[in-house]
């Protein structure tokens, strides 16, 4: 049986958009507010890489992440399948960072009723993405995200997202670090890869007539309520 929230016809939500656009931030907030489960392939991969003794396979995956390239579709489908198998069939899922290329979208539609999904396509100017990725810090322990940049130009007004004491994670007190793939060179290649490999997935969604909400969070986290209201309105109206 294809895994989806078929019992109550709850659409799965696919968070879509370039690196740094806020898929993880908004997806994390939505999960709590609408009581969905989250499957974030990037987070899953980082949790595997936290181990001290990495197997040769994990060392290879680590090298791929450091370069900003994509992990093999086989490995990603393994992660998605095993995450799905731990869910109950009526639970709605927010996918973050998946599907990330056309092949993954096709493989996904083999296991999921992809047509009953809802896509949140987040968009920001590339120069804003680059600045945000450069200013991003994450908690080494729990992965909570922060941002040290202050953007105020061309209609964008994004305040820094700082920890309360300016140094350590609000949630667990962990150390804040810069992700290995958030350096200038790797950011440039991740954005290039997004344009080449991931952006075309939107065309697949369109051809399948999956509803797409295009949303530009020009005020960062402050736009979250607006996003939530748009999603709730769409869900209530049945799109
Ligand atoms: P971001 O969206 O900020 O680039 P993610 O946390 O989603 O970050 O992903 C981090 C890295 O994990 C990616 O650069 C890639 O190497 C790997 N990754 C995550 N999701 C996928 C996926 N669906 N397919 C292939 N690789 C992935």
Which ligands are bound?
adenosine-5'-diphosphate
End-to-end distance, in Å? 25 Å
Helical proportion, percent range: 40-55%
Can you count the beta strands?
10
- Give the overall shape, derived from the CA principal axes: globular
Specify the biggest β-sheet: 5 strands, parallel
> Radius of gyration, rounded?
17 Å
> Strand order within the widest sheet?
2-3-1-4-10
Write the H/E string, N to C: EHEHHHEHEHEEEEEHHEH
Unreliable stretches covering 5 or more consecutive residues: 3-8
Q: How many helices does DSSP assign?
A: 9
Mean pLDDT score: 93
Percent of residues in beta strands: 15-25%
- Judged by helices, strands and strand pairing, the structural class is alpha/beta
What report would you give on this structure?
The protein has 239 residues and is an alpha/beta fold. It is 42% helix and 16% strand. The protein has 9 helices and 10 strands. The strands form 3 sheets. The protein has a 5-stranded parallel β-sheet, sandwiched between helices. A hairpin with a 5-residue loop joins strand 5 and strand 6. The longest helix has 15 residues. It is globular. It starts with 11 loop residues before the first strand and ends with a helix. The N terminus is likely disordered. Bound molecules: adenosine-5'-diphosphate (ADP). Adenosine-5'-diphosphate binds next to helix 2 and helix 3.
Index terms:
alpha/beta; 9 helices; 42% helix; globular; binds adenosine-5'-diphosphate
What's the topology here?
Layout (H helix, E strand, L loop, with lengths): L11 E5 L6 H12 L2 E4 H8 L7 H12 L5 H13 L7 E4 L5 H10 L5 E6 L3 H10 E4 L5 E3 L3 E3 L2 E3 L17 E2 L6 H15 L2 H7 L4 E4 L8 H14 L2
Parallel strand pairs: 1-3, 1-4, 2-3, 4-10
Antiparallel strand pairs: 5-6, 5-9, 7-8
The chain binds adenosine-5'-diphosphate.
């Amino acid at each position: 049986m294809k895994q989806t929230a078929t019992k109550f016809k709850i659409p799965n939500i696919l968070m879509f958009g370039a690196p740094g656009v806020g898929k993880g931030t908004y997806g994390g907030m939505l999960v709590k507010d609408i009581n969905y489960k989250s499957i974030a392939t990037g987070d899953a991969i980082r949790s595997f890489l936290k181990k001290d003794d990495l197997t040769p396979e994990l060392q290879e995956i680590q090298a791929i992440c450091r370069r900003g390239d994509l992990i093999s579709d086989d490995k990603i489908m393994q992660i998605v399948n095993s995450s799905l198998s731990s869910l109950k069939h009526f639970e709605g899922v927010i996918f973050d960072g998946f599907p990330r290329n056309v092949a993954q979208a096709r493989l996904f539609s083999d296991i999921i009723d992809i047509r009953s999904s809802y896509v949140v396509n987040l968009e920001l100017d590339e120069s804003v993405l680059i600045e945000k990725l450069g200013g991003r810090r994450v908690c080494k322990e729990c992965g909570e995200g922060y941002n040290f940049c202050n953007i105020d130009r061309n209609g964008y007004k994004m305040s820094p997202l700082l920890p309360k004491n300016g140094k350590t994670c609000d949630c667990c007190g962990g150390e804040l670090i810069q992700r290995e793939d958030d350096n200038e060179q790797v950011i440039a290649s991740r954005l290039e890869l997004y344009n080449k490999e991931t952006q075309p997935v939107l065309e697949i969604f369109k051809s399948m007539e999956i509803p797409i909400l295009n949303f530009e969070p020009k005020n960062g986290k402050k736009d979250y309520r607006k996003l939530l209201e748009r999603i709730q309105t769409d869900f209530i109206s049945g799109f």
